[in-house]
Amino acid sequence: MEDLIRASLDHCIKCTICETVCPVAQVTPLFPGPKYEGPQAERFRLPSGSADASVDYCSGCGLCTQVCPQGVKIAEINSRARAHFKAQKGVSVRDRILARPGLTGRLGTPVAPLANRVMANGTARRLMEKAVGVHHAAPVPVYAGHSFQRWARHHERHASPRLDGRSVVYFHGCSVNWFEPDLGRMVVAVLEHNGVEVKMPRQDCCGLPLQSNGLFDAARRALGRLARDLSAGSAGHAVVASSTSCGVMLKREGREILGLDDDETLRAVGARTFDVCEYLLDLHGQGLLDTGFRPLPLTVIYHAACQQRGHSMGTPALELLRLVPELEVIRSEADCCGMAGTYGLKKEKYDIGMAVGERLFEQVRRVGPDAVACDGETCRWQITKATGRASVHPVELLFRAYGLEL
Amino acid sequence: MSGEGEIVVIGVGLAGLVAALRLAEGGRRVRVLAKGVGSTHLSGATVDVLGYAPFRVRSPAATLPEFAVANPHHPYALMGTAVVDDAVTWLKGRLSNPRYVGDLRRNFLLPTALGVAKPTAVAPQTMAVGDLTHGGCFVIVGLPGLKDFYPALVAGNLGSTVGIAGEAIEARAVDVDLTLDGRVDVGPLAYARRLDDPAFRAQLAARLHGRLGADDMVGLPAVLGLTDAEQAWEELEARLERPVFEIPTLPPSVPGVRLYGALSGALHRLGVSVTIGGEVLGAETHGGRVTGVHTETANGVRFHAAAGVVLATGGWAAGGLEMDSHWVVREPVLGLPVTGIPGGGRRFLPGYFDHHPLASTGVAVEGSLRPVDGDGRVVFTNVRVAGATLAGAEPWKEKSGDGLSLSTGYHAAMSMLAEED
């Protein structure tokens, strides 16, 4: 698989289509663009990796690979070059921390009120920027103070939902577990409302932030462990993910970027993984989705995040939201919000991320929607921080349109 | 999830975009699936309907009837040449930034990035001003660091050209002194984005104004703004007090990106789902119809039921036609019969403008663009084929590429819409 990724560069015909969509190269000369950084530079790199520092400015959004008409795995080539670069130059303390949301979640949760106060404090954030390099204005998540898993254990003991014989395993990811447990509860409620039993095995990080920060070995261990955890609890059921970036890690990136194509468990779990909106729209296609939505007289912008596009599944969230009466859904005109996982948090990349997101922010300011709907968590935090508008997962709107309550 | 009654359009080049938009406007539910972004980003975004047949064409409208008689298997002949006019009128009604001008009555002669006079019927008005038909004085402006645009080359070649009645063309090159974020190696899009900013436009105009003669027409590489080209162009004309025109560049093509943006934006506003990065791998068929297509997703294959399919996957370069190492030619998505496969081993001849046997290879169709086999029988009744996949045309020789894509995409949609009525 690794050789196939690299060999794909021979399909490059230098058409420059990838250059037209790269959100980073549009706003800074520090990144020379996906074609130069990818298929062109890769030819001259040693097998052990000899990328220059510019590769670290790739945000990993993956748009270049998606638009390439010749099938060149541009983003994957650059992701691996970045890992080699980081292995040679060393990974900073900051990147090692950002790469481990499970660890920071576990540490912060018991002291959530204090941790949240510190993270909201301007002076503390400026000190943090100096000390570790996390930009003082970047959106950091808020600790919920209790984990989703704790609620899940309680729910599994007490729930007696209407069930139609369909079961799924919910891959909730770190952000739902530590920062947005209410979103997880809404996902479960919407699935159960449609007669789907939801199993919630204990699980940890998928390794995506480790991968994007160049820590491939740790990422491989994390993803392998997750695949086994989900497999053990799933008995062949569909795995449903509410984080599009973590979902695509399970579906594709682990095999393609981390080279875990031989991991049978990962292959099997990945092959039956669905984004939650993809799963719900499939239910609708089979006539099994309750479409008795109440009117939601709101205007929302739907932003298909770059990692959402990486699923190559269309925009199921958009199609679901269009089923809700009186909900006006406007499509985002932008390709990327600029956050790209942990990229926009970093001191040296924050301004780039904000410049990338400006097209979306400008549309939000112009339209003035009630909310922005987006499947990616770090994108939602970025959008809310930059525009002051609420940003919600599409499932939250379905939850409200069903008249459900937590 | 595709429901019943959905038309699947495969490909997002000009043919696919036009077919999808016309179908959606006609009230059909449409889903667009594409392996990647298409040829718009590589083309000059002028609508070349018929430039050579075989000599330079002055009026496509006047030439098309005899061209169709002489080339009965050409898509223009099969559809009827009136379609081309309808398609051009339709497209012009959908493009406003920049607006498109011209019609089939006469071709413009517009300068290329090599300074060659190219006959084209319809063009963005930001380009049409550069019409060489009646000669004139032209200044070709070079921007520092801009790759693959050499004003001295353009001016030199233009200077050895004349208008249609022998009018003189005078051309000279000037380079302006501007810096772009300290970059030394700049692509057209980087300039186009900067020129969306009025302050940068003013800076460019100020550097240029004093260096122009009274009768000069000012040719710039086609980078005059990405999101608001119309405004950028008008403003430069006003500031320079002279006609200003764009000359298409090598890829990425800013006018092509604008064209893609206008058409895909219209699709989004009509609620059409456009998925890019999900290659269509194959189809299910039943009783002479395609019932749906399979696309590649991040972790497998997804089925989209289809009431009809428009195949607009392009030609050799885009992968819409393939040839393997045994010289076997195929259409990979629906496995349609490919016609015009040359026997006897010679696929190409020595001269560039020779009639290469491989050149008109493609999928043969009947008048409503349904694919046919070697005996002329329709293969799938609910499929239309549009664009560079079609047999019977030699677009690079005829200068008919975007005209073919536009008119066949349009006709594919119209014949599908007509079938339901």
Tell me briefly what this model is.
Chain A is an alpha/beta fold and 406 residues long. Chain A has helices spanning 2-7, 17-21, 34-42, 63-67, 74-89, 93-98, 101-108, 112-119, 122-132, 148-158, 173-179, 181-193, 208-212, 216-232, 244-256, 264-271, 276-285, 306-309, 316-321, 350-367, 377-387, 394-401; strands at residues 166-171, 196-199, 238-241, 273-275, 298-303, 327-331, 371-374, 391-392.
Largest sheet of chain B: 5 strands, parallel
CATH class division of the domain at 291-401 in chain A = Alpha Beta
Rg for CA atoms of chain B: 22 Å
| Derived structural class of chain B | alpha/beta
What CATH calls the topology of the largest domain in chain B is FAD/NAD(P)-binding domain
Give the terminus-to-terminus CA distance of chain B.
26 Å
Number of helices of chain B: 12
Can you give a write-up of this model?
The complex is a heterodimer of chains A (406) and B (421). Chain A has helices at 2-7, 17-21, 34-42, 63-67, 74-89, 93-98, 101-108, 112-119, 122-132, 148-158, 173-179, 181-193, 208-212, 216-232, 244-256, 264-271, 276-285, 306-309, 316-321, 350-367, 377-387, 394-401, and strands at residues 166-171, 196-199, 238-241, 273-275, 298-303, 327-331, 371-374, 391-392. Chain A is of the alpha/beta class and 406 residues long. Among the domains of chain A are: 2-89, Alpha-helical ferredoxin (Fumarate Reductase Iron-sulfur Protein, Chain B, domain 2, Orthogonal Bundle); 291-401, Rossmann fold. In chain A, the strands form two sheets. Chain A has a four-stranded parallel β-sheet with strand order 2-1-3-4. A four-stranded parallel β-sheet of chain A has the order 6-5-7-8. In chain A, strand 7, helix 21 (377-387) and strand 8 (391-392) form a beta-alpha-beta unit. In chain A, helix 3 packs across helix 5, helix 11 (173-179) crosses helix 12 and helix 15 (244-256) packs across helix 16. The longest helix of chain A is centred in the last third of the chain and has 18 residues, at 350-367. Chain A is globular. Chain B is of the alpha/beta class. Chain B has two domains: 6-93 and 258-420, FAD/NAD(P)-binding domain (3-Layer(bba) Sandwich); 131-242. In chain B, the strands form six sheets. In chain B, strands 11-2-1-15-18 form a five-stranded parallel β-sheet, with helices on one face. In chain B, strands 8-7-9-10 form a four-stranded parallel β-sheet. In chain B, helix 1 (14-25) runs parallel beside helix 12 (401-420) and helix 8 runs parallel beside helix 9 (229-240). The mean pLDDT of chain B is 94. Classes of the chains: A alpha/beta (406), B alpha/beta (421). Chains A and B meet through helix 2, helix 4, helix 15, helix 17 and helix 19 of A and helix 7, helix 10, strand 11 and strand 13 of B.
